[in-house]
């Protein structure tokens, strides 16, 4: 398979693993893998077809990229945006000490954009109202059974996310086997039917792009924000409705629990870059306090 290469020197400090962290679905993600050698492998569906890309950062700041597959050129063309070249934090002001400290500690933090709505939509819908463990298990299963093998010399087990056509072909019993209940399979199938139109959201960007995504039944504020954060690096797309995020923001900024209404109020001074403030807190290691009730892991395959 032909190999295409590209070199890119970001005009800013770059931590590839840190920038791509929001797009990685656990250590076993079959579509994004970091190796101890420093290589980062990722797969994607592009308008030209599937592709694999591997990134090698050098000590002098240069990023070397190689890619394979029908979509290799498209994936390489998107490398600067993927690493945050299109991100603009002009006007961002840290209104809380925790955000200010995180910003000083993390000069590399940028909001990368994949430019691909479908690849972000599929795992985001899988994460609706279930634990991360359940969602990642379903993600791995769907990629293994309905995604193509990664083009090129990718590490063993890497797959390309299932295409919209592949998702539309999944039968009810196969959804069940993957642990995906009907409340999540319905929006996935509905989105797969109009996937080509949903890609326009990454061009519209912002609130308009999120509104387009929400036209799909079953995709609400939370899911649209999760997609926007990854597909176009939306700096204001906060995941309202999340089980963890209000607690992270509340304890980091106020030292107490918050609900969505409280988080909306405390993040108001950061508009139109509220998600950037949240991302600083998450990347700095703030987390939900480990006490109180936990969600039980459900196995829909046994129901």
TrEMBL record:
Cellular component per GO, a single term: cytoplasm
GO BP, sorted A to Z: base-excision repair, AP site formation; DNA alkylation repair
InterPro entries in the record: Alkylbase_DNA_Glycosylase/TA, DNA_glycosylase
SUPFAM superfamilies per UniProt: DNA-glycosylase (SSF48150)
TM regions (residue ranges): none
Keywords, alphabetical: DNA damage, DNA repair
GO-annotated molecular function: alkylated DNA binding; DNA-3-methyladenine glycosylase activity; DNA-7-methylguanine glycosylase activity
Domain of life: Bacteria
Coiled coil, from the record: none
The protein's name in its UniProt record: 3-methyladenine DNA glycosylase/8-oxoguanine DNA glycosylase
């Amino acid at each position: 398979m032909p190999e295409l290469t590209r070199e890119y020197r970001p005009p800013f400090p770059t931590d590839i693993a840190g920038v791509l962290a929001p797009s990685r679905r656990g250590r076993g993600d079959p579509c994004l893998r970091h190796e101890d050698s420093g290589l980062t492998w990722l797969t994607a569906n592009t308008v030209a077809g599937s592709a694999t890309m591997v990134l090698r950062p050098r000590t002098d700041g240069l990023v070397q990229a190689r890619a394979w597959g029908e979509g290799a050129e498209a994936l390489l063309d998107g490398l600067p945006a993927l690493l945050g070249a299109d991100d603009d934090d002009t006007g961002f002001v840290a209104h809380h000490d925790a955000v200010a400290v995180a910003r000083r500690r993390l000069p590399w933090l940028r909001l990368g954009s994949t430019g691909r709505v479908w690849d972000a939509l599929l795992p985001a819908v899988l994460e609706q109202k279930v634990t991360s463990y359940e969602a990642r298990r379903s993600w791995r299963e769907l990629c293994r059974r309905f995604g193509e093998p990664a083009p090129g010399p990718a590490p063993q087990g890497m797959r390309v996310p299932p295409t919209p056509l592949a998702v539309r072909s999944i039968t009810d019993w196969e959804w069940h086997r993957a642990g995906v209940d009907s409340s999540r399979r319905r929006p996935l199938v509905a989105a797969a039917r109009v996937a080509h139109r949903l890609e326009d959201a990454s061009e519209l960007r912002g609130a308009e792009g999120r509104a387009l995504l929400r036209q799909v039944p079953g995709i609400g504020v939370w899911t649209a924000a999760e997609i926007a954060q990854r597909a176009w690096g939306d700096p204001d797309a906060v995941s309202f409705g999340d089980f963890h995020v209000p607690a992270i923001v509340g304890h980091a900024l106020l030292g107490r629990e918050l609900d969505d209404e409280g988080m909306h109020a405390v993040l108001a001074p950061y508009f139109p870059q509220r998600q950037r403030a949240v991302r600083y807190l998450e990347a700095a290691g703030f987390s939900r306090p480990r006490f109180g009730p936990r969600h039980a892991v459900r196995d829909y395959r046994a129901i």
